[in-house]
Each structure stands twice: as structure tokens, then as C-alpha cells.
């Protein structure tokens, strides 16, 4: 039978509320000796706290919420894993929910997490939310708990944010291709996403810096998913390019699938740099160069910022822009144009 606070109180000869105060480390007039006795009895009876009952006493649910756009994308599943680890280290539970990149789900999941009395929310907005930014911003302003935007952030909302410098990440990738002699460089962009737009800007900035005329026929649009990379690959096959900058790993998977079906090889036929650095261990025969967004650092920084808000140690909205890093491997060959 499940042990309750009343069982412990009876054995310790104190009231249930005294037991609850001691087990929740709340201030009380109970002697240290009696506190130790109560905790020992709880241990001997193998008592496990009923979190909901505990939250009624402490007004803390010790729970955070995380809304991610695509749980099947390794970048987001890895981010969720690291945020969950941070929560657990600090004695918190994390409720992870998936918006499937739908604006309506962002709104509904914010309400769902509030209904579960989470103490704070981590949000990576859905792609579609970028197009409904005003409505999402209004919703966020009404939140009754602290929240933080990660990875995909809006400049016109003053709130806690942590993201990577997307334009810089794209710029260093394309500059690397240019420094290796490539002049005809295609881009598989995802410009319907806020960070995808900045990555496209980084591509354009590098080409302009090397005085390469922009051929907009070499810019293809994807949606961060494998299928769009595959379709882009079918078009690139017919273009006169030697290198491709792909703005995320899932599309790179589709692109590689597409060109390998046509017996094209990397880097023999195309030099490739991707973004996220999440899939190279799973690729056979392709040492894929990629822009790394350190998910561990992103999650630790985001947790620290939100936790400070929860503890009311800091109520000033903090913006943290992290630097991505190019991980160069053998998917880029040097050519002499
Ligand atoms: O792969 C998904 C992409 O969208 C990542 O690059 C990440 O930045 C997310 O926003």
C-alpha cells in the first residue's frame, strides 16, 4: 500500500503538516533532531512524494515545459535531451511537446503547459509562427510564467533569448568554399524560417565579398526537411555548380540521397557544406563538413537564463548570441577555377 505523509506523522508523533514542511525543506520550528527522525522514517517506509500534493504545499511544481518544432530532427531531439538533463540536475521535470512546425500548435501547447502549472517555458517557435509573429508575440506577453526563446528568435520582442549567429555561420561556410577555389556555389535555403533568412544573407555576403555575381537560379528553397533537400538535388544536377551550401542537415540527407541516385559523388562531383553537424557519424562514405551549433552550450545557457528568472534573481530580459563553428571535413575539395 502507498505510504502517505499521515503514516509518517503517526510514527513520528507529529502533525502531517509538520512532516510536509520537513520533507519539502520549508522553514519551521521543528527541532533538527525531530527533522532527522522524520526524514529517517520516510526513508525506512520508502516514501515517494506525490508531486501534485507537494506542489499544493510549496506552490512549486518543479516542472518546466519545452516546445520544439520537429522532434524527428536530430538537432531538436538533441536539444531536448540536453535541456532535460539540465532540468533533472536541478530537480526539475521537463514536459517536452512537439509543434510540428505549426503556429496553431505553438499557441495550443503554450496553453497546455500552463494548464500543467509549469514554472517556466522554453520555446523554439514553429516556422509558421514567423508568419504569425504578431499573434505569437501577443500570446507570449500574456504568459503568466517566465519563458525563453531559443534558436529562432524575434528581434521585435523584448524577452530572454539564446540563439546562434546564423548569418556568421553561413558566411564562414561559404567563405571556406570560396577559399577552396569554388566560384559556382548553389544554396539550399530555408528562407521561410527566421534563421534561414539570416543563413541566406551569410551566403550572399560571402559571394559579394569575393565579387562573385549572384546567380539567383542557384538559390533553391527548402523547408528544413529531407524531402525538400532531395527535390533540390534533382534540380542542382542540371546546374553548372561545383559546390553547395545546405542550410541544415536534414536537407543535406535528402540532397545526398538525390545525387547518389544519379551516381554523383561528394566531393568528386560536388563539394558540400551543411548546417547543424548532427548527421556526419551516420553517413557512410561522406565526411560531411558542417556548421556546428553547440546544442549543449545552447541548452545550458538557456536553462541558466530561465532558472534565474524562476528564482527571481534577475528580471531583466537577456539576449545571448552564440558563435557557431565550421567543422571542415573531406566533403569539400580544393579546385583551381
Ligand atoms: O535543422 C533544423 C534547423 O532549424 C536547425 O539549423 C536549427 O537552427 C533550427 O532552427
Low-confidence stretches: none
Number of domains: 3
* Helical percentage: 40-55%
CATH class of the largest domain: Alpha Beta
Which structural class do the helices and strands define?
Answer: alpha/beta
Widest beta sheet: strand line-up: 2-1-3-4-5-11
Through-space gap between termini:
77 Å
Description:
This protein is α/β, with parallel strands linked by helices and 337 residues long. It has 3 domains: 5-58, 434 Repressor (Amino-terminal Domain); 63-163 and 295-322, 3-Layer(aba) Sandwich (Rossmann fold); 166-293, Rossmann fold. Helix content is 45%, strand content 16%. The strands form 2 sheets. A 6-stranded parallel sheet has the order 2-1-3-4-5-11, sandwiched between helices. A 6-stranded mixed sheet has the order 7-6-8-9-10-12, with helices on both faces. Strand 8 (243-246), helix 12 (249-261) and strand 9 form a beta-alpha-beta unit. Alpha-D-ribofuranose binds at residues 73, 75, 151-152, 195, 224, 248, 250, 275-276, 293. Keywords: DNA-binding, Repressor, Transcription, Transcription regulation. InterPro entries: HTH_LacI, LacI/GalR-like_sensor, Lambda_DNA-bd_dom_sf, Peripla_BP_I. Pfam families: LacI, Peripla_BP_3.
